Amino acid sequence: MRTHRIAVIPGDGIGPEVVREGVKVLEAAAVRAGMFRLEFDWLPWNCSYYRRHGRMMPADGIEQLRTYDGIYLGAVGDPSVPDHVSVWQLILPIRKAFQQYVNLRPAKLLAGLESPLRHKEARDLDFVIVRENTEGEYSDIGGRLHPGTPVEMAVQTSVFTRYGIERVARYALSLARRRRGHVAVATKSNGLAHTMPYWDEVIRSCRVEFPDVDVSFYHVDALSTLFVLRPETLDVVLATNLFGDILSDLGAAVVGGLGVAPAGNINPEKRFPSMFEPVHGSAPDIAGKGIANPIAAIWSGAMMLEHLGHPEPAAEVVRAIEQVLAEGRVWTRDLGGTASTEEVGDAVVRAL
Amino acid sequence: MRTHRIAVIPGDGIGPEVVREGVKVLEAAAVRAGMFRLEFDWLPWNCSYYRRHGRMMPADGIEQLRTYDGIYLGAVGDPSVPDHVSVWQLILPIRKAFQQYVNLRPAKLLAGLESPLRHKEARDLDFVIVRENTEGEYSDIGGRLHPGTPVEMAVQTSVFTRYGIERVARYALSLARRRRGHVAVATKSNGLAHTMPYWDEVIRSCRVEFPDVDVSFYHVDALSTLFVLRPETLDVVLATNLFGDILSDLGAAVVGGLGVAPAGNINPEKRFPSMFEPVHGSAPDIAGKGIANPIAAIWSGAMMLEHLGHPEPAAEVVRAIEQVLAEGRVWTRDLGGTASTEEVGDAVVRAL
Ligand SMILES: CC(C)[C@H](C(=O)O)[C@@H](O)C(=O)O
Ligand SMILES: CC(C)[C@H](C(=O)O)[C@@H](O)C(=O)O
Questions:
Q1: Sheet of B262-266: strands edge to edge?
Q2: Which of A81, A87, A282 has most ligand 2 atoms within 8 Å of CB, for mutation?
Q3: Strands B2-11 and A264-266, how do they pair?
Q4: Which ligand approaches the C-alpha of residue A263 most closely?
Q5: Rounded to two decimals, what is the model's pTM?
Q6: Domains with residue ranges and CATH for chain A
Q7: Tens digit of pLDDT for each residue in A92-129?
Q8: pLDDT by residue (tens digit) across A244-280?
Q9: Which one of A91, B105, B284, B340 has the fewest CB atoms closer than 10 angstroms to its CB?
C-alpha cells in the first residue's frame, strides 16, 4: 500500500483550526478507501515562529518541503507581522520554488447553499479559475526613490514570460476540453499596454493547438461584472496572478463565501510537491473561537487527494461536504448556522 | 448669464448615441434652470478619425481641449484599432494632461431598479469609488526583451508618487467627511510588496489630518467580496488606478449594470477641464441599433453640471432619471425593457 507523505503547515489564526478538521477528514477518507496511507508531518512555520526566529521558515525550509508528496496549508498572517513579510517568506516562495504555476480555484455552488445572486442557482454557478501563480504582477522587483522628499515614489515591475504564460494557458485550455470547452481570458490590454497585449498574444499563439476550445478575451473590469450578472457564461477563467487573486475571491463570494472556497497550487508535471490551501486568510478576528468554517480547507484536502491520484476518494469527500451542507443542520456562523468548526469536521466524517 | 463651453467627444460605437441624449437632457436642464448657458462643440475624434489620420486626435488636441470648461465623452474603442492604441491616444492622455486625478464613480441603486444581489435593497447600495486616475499601474513604462526567443518576456513598471497618492487620498477623505465618514482603502500590500505598502503608508500619513474619518484597509481580493456580500458597509472606496477600474465596474454590476453607471474624471482644483463619461465602453455589438441605455451618459452629464457649479440642476436631472426608472415603462433592453435610446432621453427631458 502506497504511503503519501504530507507536510502540514497550519499557519496562523484560524489556519490550525480548519486544518485539524481537514486532516481528520482526509484520514477517514484514506481508511475508507483502503488503497493508500497518509502520513502527516506538522510544521510550525508561522508568525510566532517568525517572532522567535526572525524568519517564517527555516533556511532549509524549501529543501525540507521538497521531500514531501504534498503540502497542506491553513492560512498565514497575523497583525504582529507585516503581511508582505509573512507571505513573501512562506506562501509565495513555496509557490515559486515548486513551480506551482497553476492556482486552481473552483467556484461551484454546492448543494444546500444559496448564492447571494438573486436570480442564480446551482446550474448557473459552476466554473473554475486558473490563476497563473509564479510570475506577473507578484514580482519582487521594485523599490523607492527620493525617500523623504516631496518627489518620493515607489515603483514595481511586473514580468510576464512566454514560458510562464504558455504553460498556464495550455493547462487552462486542456482543462476546458475536459469541461464545457470554453475559456474566458482576463486581460487589461487597453490600460496596461505593455504586459497585457503580450499576455493576449501568447495565449492566442497557444490556442491554435486547441481548435476545439472556444476562447474569449475580456477586460478584467468587464469580466468582473460577468461574475455577478452572467456567471452561467463562465466555464474556465484564465487569469494573471493578480487578476486571478481578485477574481477567485469574487468567485468565492458568488458561491457562498470564502468559508467554502478551496484552492490548489499545482505543479501539473508533479516534479515538485503541490500545495493545497483554502482561499480564505487567517481571519484573526475570529481565530481561537472555534467558529471558522472548515469546508474550504476540507475541500482543498479533497483536491490534494485527487492530485495524488485518488479521484474517487476525493469525490466522496466532496459528496460528504454536500450532504452535510444540504442537511442544513451543521452550518457554521458564516452560513447562518451555529455549529463549531469541529462539529462540521465530525459531520463530514460521519457523512463519509 | 454665464456660458459654459463644453467639448463633446462622442467617440465610437454607442458613444454618439448615448451622448446625443445626454446633450439633449443637459440643454433642457439649462433652459429650465435659466441661470447659465451651455455651448457644445462636437469633436469627431475616434477610431474612424484614426483610420483617416493615423492618430486619435489632432497633434494639438490637448491644446484645443484646454480652452473648454468641460469635456463630455461617450466611449472610445472599435475592433478596427487595437484598444491600447485608441485609449492611450485619447482618454488616457486627457486624464493625465489635465490632472484629472480623481475618477469619481458613484455606485448607487436608483429608485425603480433591483439589485442582482438577493438580499440587498436601495439603502444597502449607496457608495462611491474614488479612483486614482493619473499614475500607478497605468504607466507607459515597459517593453519586451528577447523577442522571438524562448526566453521572450514583457515587463511593465507601476509608479506611485507621494504627490499622486496624497492628492487623491485627501479628496477621498474630505468626501467621506461630507458623507458617512468612512473610507475603505483597496490595497494589496501582501502581494505587491513594493508599491502597495507605500500606497498604504502615504494614505496613513494623510489620515491624521482627518481624525473624524474612519479608515479601513482591505486587500482588493477581500474588498471585492464585500461589494457582493456586505455593500452596506461601504461609503467611500479609495483605490488605485487599476483596482478602481475593476471595483467600479463591479460596483456598477451590483447596482444594476453598466447602463446606469456614471463617472467624472475630475481636476478638483478646476485648473484644467474635467471630463465626464459613462463607465461603459463603446459596446460595438449593440452599436447603431438605438438600444443602448443612455442613463449612464445622462447621469455623467449631471455630474458635469454639478462640477460646473450647478448642484441644483444636477440633482434635478438625477431625480428625473429616477422618476423614469421608477415608472418602469421606458426601460432599455439591458434593464429588461424595450425602449430605444432616444425614448429614454425624451422621457428624462419630460420628467424634468
Ligand atoms: C478604456 C479603459 C482604458 C478605461 C480604463 O481602464 O480606465 C475604462 O475601462 C474605464 O474604466 O474608464
Ligand atoms: C496571502 C496573499 C499573498 C495571497 C495572494 O494574493 O496570492 C492570497 O490572497 C491568496 O489568494 O492566496
A1: B36-42, B2-11, B70-75, B274-278, B262-266, B102-108, B126-132, B236-239, B182-187, B214-219
A2: A87
A3: unpaired
A4: 2
A5: 0.97
A6: 1-106+260-352 (3.40.718.10), 115-133+161-255 (3.40.1010)
A7: 999 999 999 999 999 999 988 999 999 999 999 999 99
A8: 999 999 999 999 889 999 999 999 999 999 999 999 9
A9: B284
